[in-house]
Amino acid sequence: MNEEKWSLDDLKINTYGNPRDRRPFTHYEVFVLGWLYNNTEGRTYPKMMQQCKLTLEQCETAIAGLIELDLLRLH
């Protein structure tokens, strides 16, 4: 991502992404995408980790994967 400060609240789900030729989601990405969808404000990594039952590294990897798939965008 970039060097600027951003928070999880700055991530927006891209509902217009093209599913054609997309790789399958990892189960971490599915958990994190569902969590982001259901939690639109006050998002923090500790909350995500607790509710998704994932480590910080798994959460960060899932977010990076979802950005790579163009399902998440930084706004």
Please describe what this structure looks like:
This protein is mostly helical. The chain is built from 3 helices and 2 strands, in the order βαααβ. It has helices spanning 27-38, 45-52, 56-68, and strands at residues 11-13, 72-74. Helix 1 (27-38) packs across helix 3. The longest helix has 13 residues, at 56-68. The radius of gyration is 12 Å and the shape is globular.
Helix and strand arrangement:
Elements: E1 11-13, H1 27-38, H2 45-52, H3 56-68, E2 72-74
Antiparallel strand pairs: 1-2
List SSEs in N-to-C order.
Answer: EHHHE
- Secondary structure tally: strands: 2
Strand content: 5-15%
The average pLDDT score comes to 91
The Rg value, from CA coordinates, equals 12 Å
The unreliable regions are: none
Q: How many H/I helical runs? A: 3
Précis, in short:
The chain has about 80 residues and is mostly helical.
Q: What keywords describe this structure?
A:
44% helix; globular; 75 residues; single chain; two-stranded antiparallel ribbon
